[in-house]
Every structure is written in structure tokens, then in C-alpha cells.
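Q: I have two molecules that I believe assemble together. Could you output C-alpha cells for the complex as a whole instead of separate predictions?
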Amino acid sequence: MGTEAAARLALQPALMRARGLSKRYLQRTSFSRRSFAIEALMDVNFEIAPGCLTALVGQSGSGKSTLASCLAMMEKPDCGEIWFEGNEISHWNRRKLAPLRPKIQMVFQNSAGALNPRFSAAQIIEEPLQIQHREIRQNLRARACQLMEEVGLSADWANRSPLELSGGQRQRLAIARAIALKPSLLILDESLSGLDLSTQAQILNLLLDLKAAHPLTCLLISHDLSLVGQIADFIAVMHRGRIVECGSAPQVLGSPQHPQTCKLLASVQVLETAFRTARAGGRS
Amino acid sequence: MPSTCAPLLRVRGLTVSYNARSQQPVAALRQVDFDIAPGEIVGILGESGSGKSTLALSILGLLPESAQVEGSIVLDGEDLSNAADSRWTKVRGAKVAMIFQEPGLSLSPVMRAGDQIGEVIRAHRSGGRKQRKLEVEAALKDAGISDVDRIYRAYPHQLSGGELHRVAIAQALVCRPALVIADEPTRSLDVTLQAQIRNALRDINRTYGSALIFITHNPALLTGFADRVMVMYAGRIVEAGPVAQVYRRPLHPYTKGLLQLVPEPVQYSGHISGFVRRERLPAIPGSLTRFDQLSRGCAFEPRCSARTPDCQIESPEEIVPELDRRVSCFNHGN
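A: Yes, here they are, computed for all two components at once.
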């Protein structure tokens, strides 16, 4: 996407917006009563433009996952505002949040742990449809199979356990479950790390296809700038609980401002430039 | 030069099969041949499920009992194919060591890091406690740890991901094995740490001359690091050769596919290059052929873009198109 297109999208009201978000965890040292605070998020301002693929990048421990859990309303932030579709939701109680939850879906890193091994592949997709009364009982299986086909899984595998699937196939199944409720925001929390390069590329292509077919907004969390840099519309860089840089992908990648962004870029570029040189036949 | 001196490790006709439920045995490795020269760094490249880890475990004699192993593994002149468990215990750690994918799982949670590393020395050599401590501290330093005292006394849960990897490296190297196998040691780490761990391994290789087998799925990680690369697919080595030559001119379609997966940096208008924004990423279509569904033909045939009718009928033999290179493909020239 060019800079103009990104700028045009940025003018639309954000689908989700965080203002001054802070979150700290208290942690106790082992075998003692002393506790200390970990500032996971500090005054985070963040926006997700509708219909776009926003990447949240940072080293491990920078607060990416905490921000994702706050946005997905799985954690309450200590202070700050979260706006979703025009409403400030950070102080809503569980009952009020319930109808919003299907609109924000998450795909986690550890697909083996996120899928119930006692369910078949189809049951995993049927469960949210059933809970939210989206489909009558007779149509459940057909809808699950349709979703499986959509994410590139054969419907013949409907009765398999997720343990029989490979890592990439499990991640596809998790994505099928997430999009079953037609969410407006899909959060992928490090869903690609731990997968092969070829599987990563396939899953990213699947996301691009889904985004083209549905009105879907994606937040892609990753530590790998080179991977998400290829397909993201917007990139936000996190460091020590703060968002240190954000903007359209060409902006952030083309002229990075913050030292942390430069560091993340440099570390991948050393590797990839050496690789290109070797491919071209030069000395690496 | 790898081909002229006596190999440190010689593997011939290695076939490993597992008994599958109610079916005939499934071969995870099929007729694998290769040599590793002393002090050499060899990368093994392939997707998960291609047999990379089974290969590593068979060199260490760590395969489960249900596995049926054929072929020979000769390490440092000693044939280990039929070695007893007691012999393996002496060889592992002293002559060949392994760095596992998840150091958090391979370290004991109830022992201090330093003591765990010391245990390796105790298993293979006699010597006093003080001497052992000095050796452990030296090994931790070699693995790139600066505050040795804190790490020595720490339990694994008190260490970060990068530190755990370094402890695992120190543990593998403390007895100076002639061969170290690293099974995707950087998979779960972020890019900055990956580079640091790779550099630590290379420094150790240069200082002590330990040969290294580095297993990975990312071709970019081998540049400027490994001497040779072996590409594995469905339990076979489909292409092998020096990294520079294979990367410049890959012969097997699978290698070509793997190499184009690495993201491509371009020059943005700014002074620092970014990445090409793509509507679709290059990907190898399909997924790894299941071992129990392999047919007579080439295992890569269903996913191959250069396939011909011949590929379905028989599996290609290995050929040597030029010095030091091997490839198994009928259409390697195209």
C-alpha cells in the first residue's frame, strides 16, 4: 500500500483506540515477601485503522502481549481509555462487555495449547457458533466444514483431533475458529513464531486472502520485523512498555526515527543482506 | 578441506523407521549418506517433519526403542551403529553433544545452572570440585555470559530465554566434544538474540575447532556461518554442497523454493532499506508429504513446479553434477 492510501485510511475513525494505557504487574521474588512492580505498559497511545493490517513489533518482554490482552478485554488496564467502535469500554463490566467479545477474536502462539485435544477439528469451530447461537444445530457441521475449506483445511479432516494436525494446520484451525463469529478485529499474538518460513508465508497469504474476502481488521503481533514488514499497512514498535514509533509501513521501514526501530531493522538486515550477497554470488 | 581429510563423522545408508499403528513401518529417514569433517560447520535445512531432528537423535543414539535403525554411524573411527547403551553414555557429552530446541525444558528446574553444567564433567572425568567450578565458569564465559557468578548460582526459572540458551551451550561444550549438534537453537528467540547465539557458536567453533551441525528452517541463518548445507525433504538429503555455491545456484526445486522464502529488503526512498510490500508472499504450495503416503516417485513431486511425468514413476537417484555437490532430481539443470 502506498503512502497516500495509508494516509487516506488514517483519516477514517479508528476501529480501536487506546489512550494513556498503563498496566503494572506485581511480582514477588521467590521465597521472600518482597514484591516489585513490572511496568508492562506505560502511557500507551495506539490506534488500529479499520480494514488494515497493523503490526505490533518489539523484542520479547516489551509489553506486546499485555497490550493485546488489554485490547481484547482479557485484562483490565490500571488507567487509560480504550475506545472500540465509538464506545469507551475500559470500565465496562462483564455483562456489558459480553456482546462485544465475539467482535474481537484472538489467535494465540501455542496452537497445541489453545485447542481442546478432546474435541474434533469441526467441534472446535462449532463451539463458538453454538455458544453465540449463530447457527441452528442442523447447520453447524456444514458451516464448520465450510470454514475449514476457507482456511485451506480439507473438510475430510473434520473428525480428526487437533493433535493429529501439523503446527501450520493447527494454526489454520485456530484462525477458522476465530473468524467463525465474523469478528471485526482479529488479534494474532505471535501466531507465526515457531512455524517454518514456508508455513509462515502460507499463513500470511491466508490472512491476506481472508482480509480481501471479509471486512476484517488484523493486529499482528510479532518480533520479526522482516516478516510482518512485507505485508503490514501500519507498524507500531514497542520498547519497555511504550510505543516508541508508529506510522505507515513505508514510513517506519523507510526512515525509522527511534533507535529501537533502527536496532530491530539492523539486526534483520545484517542477516538478509548477507543472504542476498550470497545468493548473488558475492562473498558474504 | 572437507573432502580430503578423514571425516569425523561418517553416516552411510542410515534408515530409521517407526512402527505405525496397524500399518507397515514408516521410514522417517531413508538412505541418508554424509560425512562431517573435523571443525566444519554444516547446516541442515528443511521444513519441520522433514526428518532433521530424527537425524540428530540417531547420531546421538537417543532414538526411542521402537525405532528400527539400519545403516552405519562412524564417529571418530568408532562404529556406533550397534553400540550398547553403556557405550553411548560414555560417548554422549564427551565426543558428541546436543543443544536442544527448548533449553527451558532440557534443563532441570531444581538444580542451579552451574551444578548442571558441572554434572557433565563429573560424568566423564574425575577431578576436584574446585577444578570443576573453574571449568564451568570458563565454559559459561565461552558461551558469551558476562556475569558468570549470577548465572552459576541461578535456577533455570530465574534466567531469561537468551541466558538459558547460553547455559545449554555451555553444558554442551564443557567437555569439548568434537561434534556439537544444535537443533534449531534459535527458533523461539527474537532476531537480535538469534544473531548473538549464532556468533557465540561460531566463536566456539573457531577457538576449539568443534564441528557443528546446525539444524534450521531459515536459509538466511546459514550465510556467513556454515561451510556446507544439506537440504532435507521427506527423510532424504535432496541437495548438498558448499553454502556459497548452493545459495548462488540451487539445483533442486525444493532448495529454490526455500531460498525464495527469505524476505527481500529493498531500497526505500530513505537511506535505510525496508522490505518490499507484497500482495502475496512467495510460498511453496502444499505441505510436506506424509511419510505413510509416499509413493514410488519423487517425494517432492506433488509440490514441485518443474515436475515431469517421469517424477511420478521413480524416485531420482543422487547424482554429483560438480565437485562437492550432490542433488537428487531429474530436472536439476533447469
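A: One point stands out. Chain B is about 30% helix and 20% strand.
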